[in-house]
Amino acid sequence: MPLTFTAGPVRVRVPATSANLGPGFDALGLALGLHDDVTAEVTSGGVRVAVHGEGAGELPEDDRHLVARAMRRTFDVLGGQPAGLALECVNRIPQARGLGSSSAAIVAGVLLARALVTDGVERLDDAGALRLAAEIEGHPDNVAPCLLGGFTIAWTEPSGAGAVSLPVAEGVRPTVFVPAERGLTETARAALPATVPHADAALNAGRAALLVHALTAAPALLLPATVDRLHQDYRAPGMPQTAALVAALRAAGVAAVVSGAGPTVLALTEPPADFAPGTEWQVWRLAIEASGATVARGRLGHAERGPVAAGRKS
Ligand SMILES: Nc1ncnc2c1ncn2[C@@H]1O[C@H](COP(=O)(O)OP(=O)(O)OP(=O)(O)O)[C@@H](O)[C@H]1O
Ligand SMILES: N[C@@H](CCO)C(=O)O
């Protein structure tokens, strides 16, 4: 069946995410109350992208833009390309900081393309959208919470990625410490060794299992549950200030980890009121985004464009 495209714009709201959460490398993730909004419309030719907020003036404004590339890939899977596309991005998620900005852009692209095709959901169901987004990103741990919301466990089979979302216990209180400098996931992955000691793998398996219990039912166990030996120490020389802040928070009893591939730090429990991280960090208390990405028809309203709509608490 040839594709037909819906008339008028569609929009998607995608959350920031924090992957790994300490021991859950490439598997565990959490959706956070800080969002990008992207609107897309089919046009008669070309690709135009308007970027507001994070990445404005830096990101490409044509078919090299990550959302546009994810859309083109998704249209191929759906069975055909529209003549042209116009995109408008209202970005609030800091980019290349370990808060899942690339996954948010990819998930936005997959969901927008699907929403622009009249019978898109019949051609690509939610499980297929997760598999496609994870394939484009290369690993599923940010894509899963971005799509599903909450705390997610993701895995990869030969047939592609799968994920489940679990409700988070009261008492889990995310705070992110965002530095000015950036760090690309690609660079942080290159710092990892090809093999790790068996004892370290065993430790991580136990702590990752404990973390599932701690996040869903027993926040008092978050400090021991967030110990990691698979990635954070190997990456520390490339982000010494991040490693120092994680160590200082943990010494103060706070369940702190490197967020994703860094350099942002995520605390899952509240730092003491007198904890002073230093002026180089932007400190935001964020809600947990329970619902994941949402799609709607029409353009973004004026009131939904501001930073307040992002859900940032402080
Ligand atoms: N909203 C966006 N629109 C277009 N491109 C983006 C967007 N967000 C990120 N990117 C692209 O992805 C790159 C960052 O991806 P990267 O995976 O390194 O970091 P991250 O996703 O922010 O962090 P992490 O994967 O550790 O959580 C940016 O440099 C940019 O090229
Ligand atoms: N699991 C990934 C998350 C960042 O994309 C990593 O740490 O490399």
Would you give an account of this structure?
- With 314 residues, this protein is α+β, with helices and mostly antiparallel strands.
- The chain has two domains: 180 residues, Ribosomal Protein S5, domain 2 (2-Layer Sandwich); 111 residues, 2-Layer Sandwich (Alpha-Beta Plaits), CATH 3.30.70.
- It has ten helices and eleven strands.
- Strands 1, 2, 3, 4, 5, 6 and 11 form a seven-stranded mixed beta sheet that branches. Strands 8-9-7-10 form a four-stranded antiparallel beta sheet, with helices on one face.
- β1 and β2 form a beta hairpin.
- α2 crosses α4.
- The longest helix has 19 residues.
- The protein is globular and about 60 Å long.
- It starts with 9 loop residues before the first strand and ends in a 17-residue tail after the last strand.
- The structure holds adenosine-5'-triphosphate (ATP) and L-homoserine.
- L-homoserine binds next to α6.
Secondary structure elements and pairings:
Blueprint: E1 10-19, E2 28-43, E3 46-53, H1 66-78, E4 84-91, H2 101-116, H3 120-123, H4 126-137, H5 143-148, E5 151-157, E6 160-166, E7 175-179, H6 185-190, H7 198-216, H8 222-225, H9 232-235, H10 240-251, E8 256-258, E9 265-267, E10 281-285, E11 294-297
Bound molecules: adenosine-5'-triphosphate and L-homoserine.
Salient structural properties:
Alpha-Beta Plaits; 11 strands; binds adenosine-5'-triphosphate; seven-stranded mixed beta sheet; 31% helix; 2 domains; binds L-homoserine; 314 residues; alpha+beta; globular; Ribosomal Protein S5, domain 2; four-stranded antiparallel beta sheet
